[in-house]
Automatic annotation (TrEMBL):
Pfam families associated with the record: SBP_bac_1
Keyword tags: Sugar transport, Transport
Species the sequence originates in: Mesotoga infera
InterPro entries noted in UniProt: Bact_solute-bd_prot1, SBP
Lineage top rank: taxon: Bacteria
Protein name, as recorded: ABC-type sugar transport system, periplasmic component
Length: 904
């Protein structure tokens, strides 16, 4: 395929001989390059993607033994995708759904660019006259490398109107935008639009009739359309589009023909915001831009281009970094915490030249604001409003710099601060959504047009849809042919359930003949009510991990461990996840999704302070004084806003100290034993003595503004950082959570998320078990995660509990390594009929010791009495105690017992 990416022309000054290097992760290749003249050159790779990951391959480039700039340490290669069919499949309602996507197998030529596509030019490497060594290392993915070229670059020519004697014709071809030939990203997709102005349209069915929208907004995301013209000549290109996501904000696209930008005007072509569908013909200086095309097949490329704001974006990134560093130094100066407002600061004594520094920052921001306004064509967008607000706040601080220590929130507060407003602008300038309906390639004087629907036509369509909503369902009822029908209730959002139903209809039902009807429930209590009413489903998906036990102990759930092949299938999951599902030696549920609790840390802040990432709680205690001296702190989930501390926040301390939560017979608690007291002392001393924050409303926000640069959190924070904090890209990392040294460091943490169960009164137990095995299998879970991410993006990331399916989740390798290592220490809380009182009283112990200052022994003794009293009451309810006397032991599951059958 032609080079899809360069914005610049230029010749090849060096080319490797034909290669056939099969590269996998960490494989490298060194080439000796000889040049007649030194200078700055681009590098183009020819390769074929041979891996199957949803993430594109990444490489690093060393020139003569060094990385010449940060971007060279991790360069993302392109990887193209195509729909398996453009005849979109239908779901059981008759609505169009996205087809599967496959990696384009064609060889590619790609000129290396920065991974965020912020720079207008490709990456330019400094090469010396004579011999140079280029080392290429594959960081992720799998490719076959075919060639390496060194390119000199030349500017793209400006458009010149062809002469009057140019060949003329009369021709038009229409390309439906929802039918791309291929694209750079699985997440940019055809979408449904119910406007009457869109083609095709159906009153009663949802059609995938447009392309892009909010999914097509990030720099470098590209879509390609192949088309044919009948003869040599000059042609115009027009787009039918709408851009109503960002009011008063232009978005930009790079337009290529057969892999090259033909004219400078098409390198960053603007599309103005529009709340209605309109047709835009590519133009230059108010006249249609005519492109010379030879007869035959061509490829039109349309790429999101944020590099039009290159200087603006780089300035914003730099300013955010500088202000964060300045705020950190202020915290170091003042000791952080609550600033004494009676102290008078002479800020110049500590920061010589502060007035000039702030003035220079203000001048640079004002210059880039003017540039951004010029590019956008107005000053009224949300991005420019935030930009302007940040400058005004800076001017406010400039008037009284000695007050800056008292007004630190104006610098880096979570909302309404300078950093916050600059981050809004930074994110906004990189967010360029556009929705396409049709593309027109035409020759002649008549421009394409369409008849806009009247308000009366729109009203009539609405009435027809309203009336149709009262008619019977459009799809055939499941099982009408006599096949088994499983009723499955799912506690998930519509986006997930639609994909699950599609997978069922495409794979499970054709394979087994078993029909599955999914129903969404928004309240898990409906499961209990349905069971009491005798109207329970066959299977429940997406439920909390405590529900299978509560159902099992009441005879409402099927014991999955009774199935003959259960033990074999159970090895797909981490052994510690089974603990909450067990009752009297049997397993009543399976884990569906997994969470994690990892250390999140700011590389920039810890690096500046020379603070290592701790591996044990003792090491955490050692770094806390240094953090406090700089006005910083460390977060653990006990310090969240909730007054009730859930087991997920307290139980890990007991596990790490080898403490039991229950006695051996399950009829009393064991938290008052030596190991339990050590665990309680650890988790309370961190707050009462070592000064961890008692209430943190949002670890993400504090982590973002760097006053809590390290802490323990989960998948939700991970997704937030990946999506909502682009300014922190490369500045944070993951590590396993701290633990307690018992020879090895034991890092036990909880981590289960959602679970599945089969109801005890199902009429189809074998079919239900067959469905669960299919649903939780590596193949189905891998496909499900792929479909979710490719359709909705990283915002909807879930981690499958199937440990083999997790290997296919498209996350950065370093992050997966940290998650994988932490999951080796996954242990959930075993349950008993009175688990709720144990969880509540451990929380109360923490509150009484930390907030009320009570002695640990006193708080524990009081709690133990209440716990044991409630345990006996519940054990009487379930027949383990009669008239205050034990009649049988309650078996508390433990990890060793699970490992005995899990590892057989």
């Amino acid at each position: 395929m032609p080079d899809i990416t360069p914005s610049y022309g230029g010749g090849t000054v060096w080319a490797s001989p034909p290669l056939s290097e099969n590269l996998r992760r960490n494989d490298g290749l060194e080439l000796n390059i000889y040049l007649n003249e030194g200078g700055h050159y681009a590098i183009r790779l020819g390769y074929t993607v041979t891996g199957s990951s949803i993430l594109p391959p990444e490489v690093s480039i060393e020139i003569n033994g060094v990385y010449q700039f940060l971007e060279a340490q991790r360069v993302t290669l392109v990887q193209y995708w195509k729909y398996e069919t453009l005849d979109f499949p239908l779901n059981r309602y008759g609505d169009e759904v996205l087809p599967s996507q496959t990696i384009l197998p064609n060889p590619l030529d790609y000129t290396l660019r920065d991974s965020s596509s912020l720079f207008r030019q490709p990456l330019l490497f400094s090469l010396e006259k004579g011999e140079n060594t280029v080392k290429l290392t594959l960081l992720s993915g799998e490719i076959t490398l075919h060639s390496v070229e060194v390119l000199s670059l030349e500017e793209i020519p400006a458009y010149a109107k062809p002469g009057a004697d140019r060949p003329k014709g009369d021709f038009i071809t229409i390309v439906e935008a929802e039918h791309p030939s291929y694209k750079s990203d699985t997440t940019i997709n055809a979408i449904a639009n119910r406007s009457l102005d869109v083609v095709p349209f159906d009153t009663y069915r949802s059609l995938l009739n447009t392309f892009g929208g909010a999914s097509w907004k990030n720099g470098g995301q590209a879509v390609f359309y192949e088309f044919e013209v009948p003869s040599d000549g000059y042609y115009c290109i027009a787009f039918k589009y709408i851009q109503d996501s960002k009011s008063k904000m232009r978005v930009f696209r790079k337009i290529t023909i057969d892999g090259a930008v033909p004219y400078k005007e098409l390198e960053s072509y603007p599309f103005d915001s529009s709340t209605v569908w309109k047709i835009e013909t590519l133009e230059s200086d108010g006249e249609n831009l005519e492109l010379y095309l030879t007869a035959g097949r061509h490829t039109l490329g349309i790429t999101v281009n944020v590099s039009v704001y290159e200087s603006v974006l780089m300035t914003l990134k730099t300013m955010i970094s500088q202000i964060n560093d300045f705020a950190l130094q202020i915290r170091y100066l003042t000791g952080g915490g609550n600033i004494d407002r009676n102290v008078e600061w002479e800020i110049e004594d500590y920061f010589p030249g502060i007035d000039e520094t702030l003035a220079a920052m203000r001048e640079e921001l004002a210059r880039e604001y003017s540039e951004a306004s010029r590019i956008n064509g107005n000053e009224d967008s949300q991005e420019l409003t935030s930009f302007r607000t940040a400058i005004m706040l800076l001017e406010r601080l400039m008037k009284a710099p000695d007050e800056i220590p008292k007004k630190l929130d104006l610098l880096v507060g979570s909302v309404g601060s300078i950093v916050s407003e600059l981050s809004v602008a930074l994110n906004g300038f990189q967010n360029m959504p556009l929705t396409l309906d049709r593309i027109y390639i035409y020759a002649g004087e008549t421009a394409p047009s369409f008849k806009r629907a009247s308000i009366f036509a729109s009203l009539w369509e609405g009435i027809k849809r309203f009336v149709d909503s009262f008619k019977p369902a459009r799809y055939k009822a499941g099982g009408s042919d006599g096949s088994v029908v499983l009723e499955v209730w799912i506690n998930r959002a519509r986006q997930y359930s639609d994909i699950i139903q599609q997978l069922v209809d495409d794979d499970f039902t054709p394979r087994t003949g078993i029909v599955v009807d999914l129903s969404i429930i928004k309240d898990e209590q409906k499961l209990i009510l349905a069971n009491a009413a005798g109207k329970s489903p066959d299977i429940a998906l997406g439920i909390s991990n405590w529900i299978p036990f509560e159902m099992g102990i009441r005879g409402a759930a099927l014991a999955l461990s009774d199935f003959e092949d259960f033990t074999i299938f159970a090895r797909n999951f981490m052994p510690g996840t089974f603990l909450p599902f067990m009752y009297e030696g049997k397993v009543y549920g399976l884990p569906e999704t997994q969470d994690f609790y990892l250390t999140f840390y700011r590389k920039d802040v810890l690096g500046m302070l020379n603070i290592p990432v701790p591996s044990t709680w003792e090491e955490v205690k050692l770094i806390l004084p240094e953090l406090h001296r700089n006005g910083l702190n460390y977060y653990i989930p006990i310090g969240g806003t909730a007054s009730s501390k859930a087991f997920m926040t307290t139980a890990p301390f007991f596990f790490q100290h080898h403490a039991r939560l229950y006695s051996e017979d399950g009829l009393s608690t064991a938290i008052d034993r030596k190991e339990g007291l050590e665990a309680i002392r650890e988790m309370t001393d961190l707050f009462a003595i070592y000064g961890m924050p008692l209430q943190v409303s949002s670890f993400f926000e504090h982590f973002r503004k760097a006053d809590i640069p390290i802490g323990i959190s989960n998948l939700a924070t991970y997704v937030q950082l990946m999506i909502a904090a682009p300014e922190l890209k490369g500045l944070w990392g993951l590590a396993p959570s701290p633990g307690v040294a018992h020879g090895d460091i034991e890092r036990w943490q909880t981590g289960s998320a959602q679970a599945v169960a089969i109801f005890g009164d199902t009429a189809h137990p074998q079919e239900a078990w067959q469905f669960l095995k299919w649903w939780l299998s590596k193949e189905t879970q891998s496909r499900f995660v792929f479909q979710v991410l490719s359709t909705y993006g990283l915002e909807y990331l879930i981690l499958p509990s199937n440990r083999f399916a997790f290997e296919d989740v498209p996350l950065p390798h370093e992050d997966k390594e940290a998650i994988r290592e932490q999951w080796e220490w996954l242990q959930e809380v075993p349950r008993s009929p009175a688990t709720y009182i144990l969880e509540r009283e451990i929380s109360n112990i923490w509150n009484r010791v930390v907030l009320e200052g009570r002695p640990i022994r006193v708080a524990v003794d009081d709690a133990v009495q209440r716990i044991n009293r409630e345990i006996l009451r519940k054990m009487e309810e379930f027949g383990y105690v009669v008239n205050g006397r034990k009649v049988r032991e309650y078996e508390i599951p433990d990890l060793e017992k699970i490992l005995a059958w899990w590892s057989e």
